[in-house]
Write a structure and sequence with these properties.
Blueprint (H helix, E strand, L loop, with lengths): L5 H26 L16 H23 L4 E7 L4 E7 L11 E4 L15 E6 L2 E12 L2 E4 L2 E11 L3 E7 H8 L6 H13 L1 E3 L19 H7 L6 E5 L6 H13 L6 H7 L12 E4 L3 H13 L9 E2 L1 H11 L13 E2 L8 H5 L2 H29 L5 H11 L7 H40 L3 H11 L26 H21 L9 H9 L6 H18 L4 H7 L1 H10 L1 H7 L9 E2 L1 H19 L2 H4 L8 H7 L5 E4 L7 H8 L8 E6 L13 H7 L4 E4 L8 H14 L21 E3 L3 H20 L5 E5 L2 H15 L6 E3 L12 E5 L8 E7 L1 H7 L4 H9 L2 E8 L23
Parallel strand pairs: 2-3, 10-16, 10-17, 11-12, 11-15, 13-14, 15-16, 18-23, 19-21, 19-22, 20-21, 22-23
Antiparallel strand pairs: 1-2, 1-5, 4-5, 5-7, 6-7, 7-8, 8-9
Helix pairs in contact: 1-2, 1-3, 3-4, 5-6, 11-12, 11-17, 11-19, 13-17, 14-15, 15-16, 15-17, 18-21, 21-24, 24-25, 27-28
């Protein structure tokens, strides 16, 4: 350390901080604020979007300058080219601006910013001014800028040099002050210098967590950086242990890909949107398994200057239920829908819950075969009822029928696009005649009994059949939905009457019978002798049959998407399907379990994507006949991200991947199989290829969170539990965070456990000399408030506050000690973690106990305490020697 002039480094750094901040402040003052009235000739009606875009750009520029005033730079690099010429470069988090001194200053998101990720001594090719150049990184210093009353400082600075090693520096300003100290008292001089030198230590020290939130990692390591800068149209999942910066990598990637100026030319082309599409800056979504983690993700996005609203960061359950009800029409609402979601419905076999791919594949095949059967039946029905003049149409239909089995539906839809108009014309001619006949019968009925439709309306209210036709009846007429809650009961009754007469007439003509339990059968029984004569029914039936057959070939592509929910209703009734995939047969056919809803949504998203990738659809997407695709297209995002991906099922992850825009297909996820704490979560890498064949897997292992002692403990925990050892964490070589052994309390009882935890918390505060972030984990939501209240009473005398984070939604403030149900703390990090009642957890949740324990253990950076109401669970007895009873003796 003697040959390193840290004071010169400090002086150069702090003077550059001042130059950057002053220059940013000057630019803010000189540019002022943009206002719409600055452009007197602007048309704010026709040019509103342009005004908004300009305002957005200027606001972004202003925010970036303000950020430079608060955080001028995050790193200083010394690089060397092939000719051994060295340059010093300062790196800002997201932006840069020219400096009067001429010093090189670049954004981390820019190509030159990639040098901050390169390992010391390694080379990197950077394209500058259209020319590729080779550089070597000799020295790297990472900053945490801080503006104080006497000027700029950087605390917890990390210095790395190719030959001199790594050092941690408490304060750059203190180094300068020690060098410049001027006093006649030699002892004061020696003391000042000693204090400054004591602030420099070999290795990279641990930064104590004193505030809640995701760890800020301004610069990624080499491996993370490669992922961060992958092209926009990539698909990747990052797998690795806790504390490896997986989530941070996703957030930084998103920020970089939203910064249009930092993108390559091809990436910029992918971000271009049509007039009706969402702007690229807003076209992204990140899914997270919990509301609590959602809050901290927002804070992390804010550090990267990425505005993140509630519409951008969503839990899958909330998002899914929203689109299923309001966009896809699967869940019932006042305006329609077919099913009600019953979250506690457990009708599927355990094998489906473990891996739903075979069950979903069977459903997908069933849906396709059902639609093909409709085509084949349509040919039979239409040709049998076709008038003599419809010879050409009959030929078309028979030719199609011969191809149905050997071709996929998309090919059939493409062919129908060229001949559909002739079907529509014939359909309209037949419908005109049939509608006239039906109208006469309707009027005859009304004239005979002016109250008949009022009576029918009341009768309909007593029926329990669903308000939709069966598979055959569906094609009798255009399906114009009338809300079941409509106040116009006459309209509802007339519609039901006409539908029943059409169904009766068709079955009479085809010499078939109405299904006895159908809605139409009930209406016909109600009408008794008021139905039309057989001759009239036969005449109507011939036209309705012809229409029924033809209608299957008009806009048939719509059923590929919108009929998925109906297909599932029939699929679930199939006896073979029931035997293969279900534990029980659902008595209420309108109820769906959560997994079933995921499957329906996935098939709707996938079929819609297949259609929108067809030329005949893409060029006509704005037409009314494709409006059903518009609501799905509106869901697509240029970037889809998933945090804690292993807590989601393969169906859910596949749904998320299917929300990517057709141009970018950008899908990035991260997770750890050892941390999966949901019964439905994805279980293996093999399942990932089912989600998307384009999905690549990257493993990441360098851990930045835990001490060496706790990291080794977590590794032993995985070994004895039979976890995925390929995901073992490795600490950086230069880390000097050794830490302390975890502590254990047995036979504690309720009060004893709380007293023991209170004593350990005070130990931690004495050791750290301030109160760091502390979490107390319990086994259920019911325990959160009682434990928090008891612990608060014991810590009241030392003025420590305890907050019950119920349902994972209460966040607490500042140095609050937080009590959580363990299921809510995925993705979070604390300096100290206490786990209450792990022996009871082992008994209550034997299948997930090892994962809960691993997740809880890896939340702790330095201090870990386990409490047993009785004794240590047998499964982790081999770890007993790794525990102490307290930390005071350490």
């Amino acid at each position: 350390m003697a040959d390193i002039d840290f004071s010169s480094l400090a002086e150069d750094t702090l003077s550059t901080f001042s130059e950057i901040a002053d220059n940013a402040t000057s630019k803010l003052d000189s540019e002022g604020f943009w206002r719409a009235d600055s452009f007197a000739s602007g048309n704010t009606l026709t040019g509103n979007k342009a005004f908004q875009n300009l305002a957005s750009i200027q606001q972004t520029n202003r925010d970036q300058l303000l950020k430079l005033c608060q955080e001028p730079a995050i790193a200083r690099l010394v690089i060397e080219d092939d000719n051994e010429n060295q340059e010093v470069i300062f790196i800002a988090r997201n932006t840069n601006l020219p400096l009067p001194s001429g010093k090189i200053f670049a954004s981390y998101r820019s190509p030159i910013g990639r040098l901050a990720e390169v390992m010391l001594g390694d080379e990197a090719k950077i394209t500058l001014d259209g020319r590729e150049q080779l550089f070597y990184v000799i020295e790297k210093t990472s900053f945490r800028p801080k503006k104080e009353t006497d000027g700029w400082d950087s605390t917890q600075t990390q210095y790395r040099h190719l030959n001199r090693g790594a050092y941690s520096i408490e304060s750059l300003r203190a180094l300068i002050q020690a060098r410049d100290f001027d006093s006649a008292d030699e002892l004061d001089l020696l003391l000042e210098q000693a204090e400054a030198k004591s602030g420099v230590s070999a290795g990279i020290g641990h930064q104590v967590r004193t505030a809640m939130g995701l760890r800020d990692q301004p610069i990624l390591d080499t491996f993370q950086g490669e992922i961060f800068r992958l092209p926009l149209n990539s698909q990747l999942i990052i797998l690795g242990p806790p504390g490896t910066g997986k989530t941070t990598t996703l957030i930084k990637r998103l920020g970089q890909k939203l910064d249009i100026e930092s993108l390559e030319a091809e990436e910029k082309r992918l971000t271009e949107t049509s007039k009706n599409q969402m702007q690229h800056s807003s076209s992204w979504i990140m899914f997270t398994p919990s509301e609590l983690l959602k809050h901290y993700l927002k804070e992390a996005f804010s550090r990267e200057q990425v505005p993140a609203s509630d519409s951008h960061i969503r839990t899958w359950i909330s998002f899914r239920n929203d689109i299923a009800r309001n966009a896809l029409g699967v869940l019932r609402s006042a305006n329609g829908g077919k099913f009600s979601l019953k979250n506690d419905l457990l009708n599927l076999a355990p094998a489906v819950i473990d891996d739903a791919s075979r069950w979903y594949g069977s459903f997908e095949d069933f849906h396709e075969q059902r639609l093909k059967y409709q085509f084949k039946e349509g040919v039979v029905i239409a040709t049998s009822a076709a008038p003599d003049s419809a010879y050409t149409i009959s030929e078309h239909l028979q030719l199609l029928a011969s191809k149905v089995e050997s071709r996929n539906l998309i090919d059939i839809y493409r062919e129908l696009e060229t001949i559909e108009d002739s079907f529509k014309s014939a359909l309209n001619d037949s419908k005109t005649i049939a509608d006239d006949l039906l109208k006469k019968e309707r009027n005859r009925l009304y004239n005979n009994d002016r109250e008949i439709f009022h009576k029918l309306a009341k009768y309909l209210e007593t029926l329990h059949q669903e308000n939709e036709p069966d598979d055959e009846e569906f094609f009798d007429d255009e399906q114009e939905e009338v809300s079941a809650l409509s106040n116009n009961t006459i309209q509802v009754a007339v519609k039901a009457y006409l539908s029943a007469i059409r169904a009766l007439a068709r079955t009479k003509y085809l010499k078939r019978s109405l299904p006895k339990k159908s809605r139409s059968s009930s209406i016909i029984r109600f009408l008794e002798k008021s139905v039309p004569s057989d001759d009239v029914l036969f005449e109507i039936g011939k036209h309705i049959s012809y229409q029924n057959g033809l209608r299957r070939f008009v806009n048939s592509h719509k059923r590929y998407v919108s009929d998925v929910a109906t297909s599932y209703r029939y699929f679930r009734k199939d006896k073979t399907v029931l035997a293969d995939f279900y534990d029980i047969e659902v008595t209420n056919t309108t109820q769906l379990s959560s997994i079933e809803l995921d499957a329906i949504i996935l098939l709707m998203l996938k079929t819609a994507r297949q259609l929108m990738m067809q030329g005949f659809v893409a060029k006509s997407l704005d037409e009314a006949r494709f409006s059903y695709l518009a609501s799905i297209s509106d869901l697509y995002k240029n970037q889809v991200m998933v945090d804690e991906a292993t807590d989601f099922s393969i169906l859910q992850l596949a749904c998320m991947e299917s929300l990517t825009s057709l141009k970018t297909k950008s899908f990035f996820a991260c997770g750890d199989f050892n941390q999966r704490i949901t019964a439905t979560g994805i279980r293996s890498q093999q399942q990932l290829s089912w989600i998307s064949p384009r999905l690549s897997i990257k493993h990441i292992q360098l851990v930045y969170r835990q001490s060496k002692t706790l990291n080794e403990f977590a590794g032993e925990l995985l070994r004895i539990q039979g976890g995925d050892l390929s995901a073992l964490g490795k600490l950086p070589v230069e880390s000097n965070h050794i830490g302390v052994k975890p502590v254990l309390c047995e036979n504690a009882g309720d009060n004893g456990s709380v007293i023991w935890i209170a004593e350990r918390i005070m130990e931690v505060e004495r050791a750290v000399q301030q109160l760091p972030t502390i979490a107390v984990l319990v086994n259920s939501e019911a325990e959160v408030k009682p434990i928090a209240e008891k612990l608060a009473s014991y810590l009241e005398e030392v003025n420590l506050s305890v907050v019950a984070c119920e349902e994972g939604s209460a966040l607490g403030e500042g140095t609050d000690i937080r009590v959580f149900d363990v299921q809510h703390i995925k993705g979070l990090e604390f300096e100290a973690v206490f786990f209450v009642g792990i022996d009871e957890l082992a008994q209550k949740k034997p299948d997930l106990f090892d994962r809960y324990l691993y997740v809880g253990t890896t939340r702790a950076a330095t201090y870990l305490g386990l409490v047993c109401h009785n004794s240590l669970p047998e499964s982790i007895e081999p770890l007993r020697d790794r525990f102490d009873s307290c930390w005071q003796a350490n």
